[in-house]
Amino acid sequence: MRKTSVYLTDDEAEGLRRVAARDGRPQAELIREGVRMVISEIEAQPRSFRSLGAGRGGGGKAAGWTSEVEVSFNWYGDRGRCDAVAFHPGTRTLLIVEAKTRLGDVQDLLGRLDVKVRLGHQIARPLGWPEPAHVIPCLVIAEGRTARRIVASHAALFARFTHRGRAARRWLADPDSEEVPGGLLVFESLPDSHRVSAKRVIRKARPSNAQQA
Fold it and tell me: Rounded CA gap, 176 and 163, in Å?
């Protein structure tokens, strides 16, 4: 068991005291029970990548894309997990989605994403999807001046992401096999958690709802 500190408002502290006195239980026990309840409730919820479809493993569809979330792979020593992947049958395009609430080591981030793109064919195969003709990285970054500044200061590293903001959303809404992006980059309002909603990228792909990158 690990010792920690919890700061409560006066009302919360008084309510905790009353419940503990009424039930004859230690306040610490009630706090631990509350934490367990919150954790169980959150972990029971499907991870929603709304723009690519609905829910964990739900095969959600939007704008002609079929999607899966939290897809693991292990190919001759290269192993990891994709936040989401999506397949567009009409253009046989596989999208590898990486969602970041904050940017740390940019080179490490893009290096890992490159590995996933390189293994796109192996990632798609267990999902029962046809052999992709194109594998495209899609980077979803939490909106913010710091994130935009980091991207701008590493322009050479992000150069492959040829379609950004409205251009990326327009392409997602109507993929064109004759104009295949080197990569998609979209800034989104994301919760401050890794349980982000990358699926909103395709669901909000209509130009009228687009945000300027």
Answer: 13
